[in-house]
Amino acid sequence: MIRRLAIITSWLLAGHALWLAIFWGLLQVPESSVWMLALSAGLALALIVVAGSLLAGASAAWDLGRPPAPALLSGVRCLPAALAAALLFGAIWWLTGMAFDWHTGIAGQIDAWVIARTGRSNTRWIHFAIFWATMFVRWTAGLTLSLTLLGAMVAVGARALKSGTWLRSAAVPARWLAITFWFVLLVAIPWHLVDWRPAKLSLAAEPWFVGLKLAAIAVAMAVGWALVLRLGHRATEKT
Predict the structure, then answer these.
(1) Which of 62, 71, 126, 146 has its CA 20 to 30 A from that of 135?
(2) According to the model, what pLDDT value does residue 163 have?
(3) CA quadruple 57, 59, 62, 63: dihedral sign
C-alpha cells in the first residue's frame, strides 16, 4: 500500500511538472500566424492528453493485481475514461453554478417571504445553508461520482456506462465522506496556503521558505489526489 502510494504520488508529481512545462510553452507561443495558432492548438490538445492520461494511469495503478508500472502507462489507452469523468464533473459544476446563480437572483424574494411568514429578519442562515448545500453537491457528490466513473471505466471499459453499479458504489456514504476528507485535508487546505507567509520573514530566507512551502504543497496535493483516486478505484472492486 505505502510503496504503491509512493509510486503513484511520484507519477502525479512528474506528470504535473510535464503538464506545467507544456502550459508554460503554450503561453510563450506568439499567435501571429496560422502555424503558431496550429502549434497552440497542438499544445492545448497535449495538455488534455497528459492530464487525462495521468489521472487514468493513477487510477489503474490502484489495481493491486497488476504491477504499478504497466498500469500507469495504460493511462493513454484509458484516456476516454478520464474524459468521461471530466465531462461528468463539468456537468455537475455547470448545474450547481446555475443553481447558485438562480439563488442569488431570488435571494431578496426569499428574504421577503421569510420575513412575511415569520416576522424575523435574520435570514443569513438560509443563504448560508443553500451555499454549502450547493458546494456539497459540487465537490463531494461531483468528485465521488466522477472518480467512481473513472475507476469503473478504467477497470471494465466503456461498458461501465451501461451499468448502474458504479452509481450505486458512489452512493455509499463512507466513500464520499472519505473522499471529501482527503480532498479537503490534502488538496483544498494546502491550495489555500499557497499565498501564506510568516509575518516576520527576512528577505534572505524568503526564497528558501517559498521553495520548501511550494514543494510541500505539491507533495501533499499529489498524495491527496492519489488517495481519492484509490477510493474511486476501490468502488469497482465489489461491482
Answers:
(1) 62
(2) 74
(3) negative
Q: State how far the alpha carbon of 25 is from the alpha carbons of 15, 20, 45, 46, 201, in Å.
A: 15, 8, 13, 11, 33
User: Which parts of the chain have pLDDT scores under 70?
Assistant: 235-239
Assigned C-alpha cell, 223:
498524495
pLDDT score of 204: 82
Pick the closest to residue 136 from 74, 73, 179, 88 (CA basis). 179
Rg over CA atoms, the chain? 21
Q: What percent of the chain has pLDDT over 70?
A: 98
Cell numbers for 222:
499529489
The H or E element that residue 12 is part of is helix 2-28
